[in-house]
Design goal:
The chain contains 14 helices and 12 strands. By secondary structure, the chain is of the alpha/beta class.
């Protein structure tokens, strides 16, 4: 049952230069994240890769380590696998190497603008939200880690910009509560992003049907933030109704850092964009009719009613007199029983395509 508190979400809205929503091409976000490793030059190369692949936006992550983690917060298992234990480098120390300064943000926004791609970033703390708002981003992407951070969600919603809200590690009840807070605090343009909080995520954990549950129960636009390493989920996401698709990118999976191993290379990003656009094309419309491309084939491969043998004028047509053969340019076989019992008005050689002029 749909919740009255969160009904009335629009089915399209403008994000920068693009309309996002039902009936529009899927909005593709190349998630640069922290795969710049704190290097401006590497960040610009990630923007280049996103542009060349045909993504609509490139997205980074904005945070201050001091505002995000305590100095003793332990690394997640995948951080340990990809960056070593806390004894080698604490999570706090790792985060400090991945920060982007305000000046870097401004330079990257200008660079993305010159390239014709939308710049987005995920704020992880109040100070970072203020920074992104001040530099004029057109939307806010909220990470799954903040899905239950209701005070933060309320602050984000009050900025009056579209929100892309990820939901990994959340129950449906938590998502409903968070969306209600966003709505109550002023958010009017929302995409709820289905996501799995494993890096990488196994296909068996991606649970793509949950995206349709979110859409149907909350009556909201949905998207998909993909952490899998296979290429089936971009197709599934589009087929199931995602209006936004997001995927991590890297220049080299072997680079140091937590997210490179499950990110797409530039060539893989191009493939993913191609799969999404191809899926959109293949889905087409809900209208079932004869396509223009089918007309010639329809005439050649379908069948018509023909004279089964030489028929003298005056012959009363019986089943032995009428055959069904190609091509399909004559009377349709659907009229077979209507012809039986009628009279031929002229001589009809065998295999003549029958017409109404031939019978009465």
């Amino acid at each position: 049952m749909k919740s009255e508190a969160i009904s009335g979400w629009p089915k399209e809205f403008r994000l920068g230069g693009r309309l996002v929503g039902a009936g529009h091409p899927v909005y593709i976000i190349a998630e640069a994240g922290v795969n710049h490793n704190g290097q401006l030059g590497l960040a610009k190369k990630l923007i280049d890769a996103a542009c060349e692949a045909g993504a609509d936006a490139v997205k980074f992550q904005t945070f201050k380590a001091e505002n995000l983690n305590t100095r003793s917060a332990p690394k997640a298992a995948y951080h340990i696998e990809t960056t070593g234990s806390d004894a080698e480098q604490s999570w706090f120390e790792l985060l400090k190497t991945q920060e982007l300064t305000a000046e870097m943000h401004r330079e990257l926004i200008d660079y993305a603008g010159d390239k014709g791609i939308e710049f987005l970033s995920t704020p992880y703390d109040e100070e970072s939200l203020e920074l992104l708002d001040s530099v004029g981003v057109h939307a806010f992407k909220i990470a799954s880690t903040e899905a239950n951070n209701l005070p933060f969600l309320s602050n984000v919603a009050g900025r009056g910009k579209p929100v892309l809200f990820s939901t990994a590690m959340s129950t449906m009840a938590e998502i409903r509560d968070s969306v209600s807070v966003l709505s109550g605090a002023g958010c009017r343009e929302l995409v709820v992003m289905h996501c799995t909080g494993n890096y990488p995520a196994k296909l068996s954990d991606t649970n793509m049907r949950a995206m349709t549950t979110i859409r149907d129960e909350l009556d909201v636009l949905v998207g998909y933030s993909d952490h899998s390493t296979e290429f089936v989920n971009p197709v599934l996401a589009v087929a199931l109704g995602a209006v936004v698709f997001e995927r991590h990118i890297t220049l080299d999976k072997a680079l140091p850092g937590p997210d490179h191993r499950m990110a797409l290379t530039p060539d893989e990003l191009k493939l993913t964009v191609s799969l999404i656009r191809g899926t959109e094309m293949a889905l087409g419309s809900r209208v079932k009719d004869v396509l223009a491309s089918e007309h010639e084939t329809r005439l050649r491969l379908r069948k018509s009613l023909v004279a089964a043998r030489d028929l003298e004028a005056g012959t009363i047509l019986s089943p032995e007199d009428v055959a069904i053969k190609r091509p399909g340019t004559g009377l349709t076989p659907a009229l077979y029983h209507q012809l039986l019992g009628r009279k031929a008005v002229r001589f009809l050689p065998a295999n003549t395509l029958l017409s109404w002029d031939d019978i009465e």
